[in-house]
Amino acid sequence: MMMLPWNSVSLILLPCAVISLNIKPLMAFNYTWGLEKVGFFDVALPNSETWPESYPRDKKDLLIPGTEYYLPNARPDVNINFDLNASYPVQGVFVKAWFDTYITQVQVGVHSNDGYTGQQPSVGNIYIPPLTSPGWQWFSGQGVHGNNECCNKEQTIFIPKISARYVQIQIRGGYTSRGYWGLRQVQISQATTNAEVQGDPHFKTFHGDHFSYHGECDLVLMKNNHFSDGLGILIHVRTKIEKTWSYVKNAAVKIGNDILEIEGRGQVWDKSADAVHIVNGEVNADLPLLFATKFPVTRMKEKQCDTKGAKCIEAIVYKIDLGDGDNILITQKWGVIKVSVTAIDKNKFHDSVGLMGHFDKPGFLARDGVHKMTNFNEFGQEWQVLQSEPMIFNERRAPQHPEQCTLPIVTTKRRLREDSALHEMAEEACTGVEEASRVFCVYDVIAAGTAEAASTYYTAYAG
Fold first, then answer.
1. In this structure, what is the dihedral angle of CA atoms 21, 24, 25, 26, given to the nearest 10 degrees?
2. Chain centroid to CA 40: how far?
3. What pLDDT sits at residue 143?
4. Residue 170 Cα to chain centre, angstroms
5. pLDDT value at residue 96
6. Is the pTM value of this prediction over 0.70?
7. Strands, E, within 280-399: which ranges?
8. Contact (Cβ atoms closer than 8 angstroms) between residue 111 and residue 136
9. Euclidean distance between CA atoms 364 and 374, whole angstroms
10. Number of Cβ atoms within 10 Å of the Cβ of 135
11. CB neighbours of 131 closer than 8 A, spacing ≥ 6?
12. Are strands 336-342 and 459-460 parallel, antiparallel or unpaired?
């Protein structure tokens, strides 16, 4: 199980090979995707030292392939400043420490003044409103450290969807047990209106948080009793374990009295696999149709490819149009189901809960909407479809509550450690996948043991 990055700006700092304790840490930047595409950022020291002219100052410098820089001090005390050029809905900051790095404090400041009239950016620098000026809001997080473990540690500082142009991330009080330090990632995320589940199930909540849950059972992806003037909506998924990994085999949506179920059939990761749909018990009912007398449902075949257009598959996409840009997409790719919910109208999705998160509250919350959960196996189990909840799948399948979800016996983490050749194959298979999904892709190819699993992350082909 992996906690993976948001779709956001990624700043990666790597330790160099240590020859002696006097060697300063190597800092390399990997510029990827996120809010910073519309603005600029720089890294500055919080003390009196001057950032050398030869060091990176904005994204133009950081985009140079293979560029590496050394920090002028041995402590990881830095300010990372962002100017997004306009106000955007900022949601939070994610920090992950390198192998043996200890950071005692992370603090994030956001400023919403889109009309700041201070100094304009000059070459090699950006300017943000003085920290003493009105308009700054600050959010603090606990320390974060690598703990000498292979998979690093992370800290998330949640910002409740504040509109901001300027952001400052303060890293303070770091030390290391081996004489060098580094941050694996520092990310700033934009508030999202999309939640989804795909692959060896990886979930993204409405608040942009990622988690994985591999249990086999029926799960509540989203429910809202007040949806569409009381019609209500339920989205359930049915997962299936396949040796050391699992996937979504069925998805069902209930609005009012109508139920649409999509099932992937055939051999997983084989092009012969197909999907069937069931509407109110009728297999492959005629489409398009009006769901709950008001929401159009369509089925189409869509060519989906890697970013180069070199590898493509034919996916089957079912769309429930909820109006005003909101929709539910259920996509079948070689027997594996992906479910995505776009929720632009906040009033429409108010009070929605489930594995896609509590729409109105941050964090991985239990059913009571109060208790925050940190163990994702427990979080997944919390949202198993209860015996008291409607059965919206056409057929029952074990396990059913009160019997708990079944977990895989052999973990993917173990395979990651044991099979370097499989890891190389996964890296190659996922080279054409969008960077925001590449880590998920590699994880899934390793778990499934086949390069075909990369097709889960192909997107609609525009070529």
1. -130
2. 23
3. 63
4. 23
5. 62
6. no
7. 282-283, 289-291, 295-305, 312-323, 326-333, 336-342
8. yes
9. 7
10. 14
11. 109, 168
12. unpaired
Pairwise CA distance, residues 91 & 2, whole Å: 21
Residue segments in the chain with a per-residue pLDDT below the cut of 70: 1-77, 91-101, 114-126, 142-161, 174-192, 410-418, 461-463
Sole residue written with tokens 């059972």: 217
Which tokens go with 358?
């509590």
The whole-angstrom separation of Cα 249 and Cα 228 is 28
Q: Is 216 exposed, middle or buried (0-12, 13-18, 19+ CB in 10 A)?
A: buried
Q: How far is CA 186 from CA 2, 28, 81, 331, 445, in A?
A: 17, 12, 12, 32, 26
194-382 has the same fold as 26-190: no
**Residue spans of beta strands (DSSP E) within 205-257:** 210-212, 218-224, 233-242, 245-255
Nearest to 135 by CA among 156, 117, 153: 117
State the CATH class of domain 194-382. Answer: alpha beta
C-alpha span between 129 and 382 (Å, rounded): 44
The two tokens of residue 87 are 């106000």
Give residue 248's pLDDT. Answer: 96
Kindly report the backbone phi and psi dihedral angles of residue 342, in degrees, each rounded to the nearest multiple of 5, phi listed first.
-100, 120
Where are the chain's structural domains?
26-190, 194-382, 412-460
With contact defined as beta carbons under 8 Å apart, do 222 and 356 qualify?
yes
State the architecture of 26-190 in CATH terms.
Sandwich (2.60)
